Amino acid sequence: MTERRTHMVKFRLSETENQQLEQLARQSGFATKAGYLRHAALETGGGDAALAEEIGKLGLAVNALHGRVPASRIGRLAEAVCRLAEALAMRGAAR
């Protein structure tokens, strides 16, 4: 059983910020903004530096697959890594 959530946190967003948050939540697979924010705040230890390091590791893994896996599968994985890197870069630029 999960611990009951009894505390509420409130803050204001501009219309643009709200739209960005909704998009980030959807892209990350969360049904709600609250779920996304909870995950981002409490479960993603390490911040951007840790994420960037993981993206680097993924890139190395994609390169290591060259010649071992069909090119179409590597291409899709490489595109996903690039989208993740771009999202991280946009997040950093917005700060």
Could you walk me through the main structural features you see in this protein, from its secondary elements to its overall organization?
The protein is built from 4 helices and no strands. Helix 1 packs across helix 2 and helix 3 runs antiparallel to helix 4. With 95 residues, it is mainly α. The longest helix has 23 residues.
Mean pLDDT: 79
Number of helices: 4
Strand content: under 5%
Report helical residue fraction: 55-70%
Summarize the main sheet.
none
Radius of gyration: 17 Å
Query: What general form does the structure show?
Result: elongated
Structural class: mainly alpha
Low-confidence stretches: none
Q: What is the count of β-strands?
A: 0
List SSEs in N-to-C order.
HHHH
- Report the span from N to C terminus: 37 Å
In short, what is this structure?
68% of the residues lie in helices and 0% in strands. It is mostly helical. Helix 1 crosses helix 2 and helix 3 (47-65) runs antiparallel to helix 4 (71-93).
